[in-house]
Structure formats: structure tokens, C-alpha cells
Amino acid sequence: MTEPDKDLPQWKIHGERVIYDNKWVQLTLMDIEPPGTPRFEHHVVRLHHVAIAAVVDDQDRVLMLRRYRFVPDKWGWELPGGIIDPGEDPAGAAAREVEEETGWRPTAGLKHLTTFQPMVGMVDSPHDVLVGRGAERVSDAPTDGEEAGTVAWIPLDDVPGLIERDQVLGSGTLVGLLQIMAMGIPGEAVTEGR
Question: pTM of this prediction?
Fold first, then answer.
């Protein structure tokens, strides 16, 4: 396969300055120069690197949470996930988040499914989506009360309807679920009809 864009000029980045910074978000202005265009400053939002887990059981149900999110002011279903702590790998972070948010612990190692940027033109926030089969109940309630919601095993066959009814929140959840439904779980044959 050839690289179709290798002969195209790249944008020049002359520098970056932070205009707001705290432990959750950083806003910068980047001094950039696209090819054939005058230099200008462009806002960039920098967020943390996160890991999201799709845990699927032997009945082809995926572990999800239904919770309220105040930014869009709505309830919806999500895969468990969160910020990768310093020194932590994405699989470890995803497994930790599953347990903290759901009370379930993945029983098999989580495998990398994909990495993506949810809003590549202005926001820097790498998202690693991981997938694994099986989990054991280790707690009756999530240990992270701020992340609490309804925990349920949702049949993968029900996911298209949830998406159609706008009941799935978050790009990481959508990317993970759609990839599993389209391509299956890495190392497994794709189920008929998915």
C-alpha cells in the first residue's frame, strides 16, 4: 500500500502557549501555518488519555452503565472507562475502571481493540478501547460513588436499537460497540448477523 499523502506539505507548528490549565483540562493556542496560508493561532483543548472497556459475557451481552450526564443533560448507556493514571497501562486502567464503576472484575485480560481521537481537529484526548470476555462479581455496588449508575448486561443484539433511540452516550462507547458488532472480538469468529 502506498502513502498517498507523503508528498503533500505538512502544516508548520511554530509554538504553543497555555492559556488555561488545571488537573482536568488544558486550553492552549497553537501558532500554526498551513501550506500556502498565513500563520494564525488555533485553540487546542488537551484532555487526559482514557481507557474504555467492553466486557462481553458468554451470552453475548456487554457490561454497561446507564447514568445521567449533566453536560448534555441526558441519561444514556455507556461502557465503563476513565482516565489512565500515571504509570498505568491502558488495559490495567480499563480493568480498574470496570471494577470501580460496576462492581465486576474482568476475568480475562483485556485486549486492545482500537485507539482514536474523538474530535481530532481541536481536541487532543487519546481514547483506547479494550475488549474482553467474562467478569466476576466482586462487589454489590460500584466503589466510585460519583460514577454510580444502573449496571446491566445488555445483549449485543439490543445495541443497534439503543443507538437508534439516542440512548448510547459517548464516542468511546459508540466506537467500541460498533467495532465489536462489525468485526467481532479479536481472535473470535464474527457471529452471524453482526
Answer: 0.87
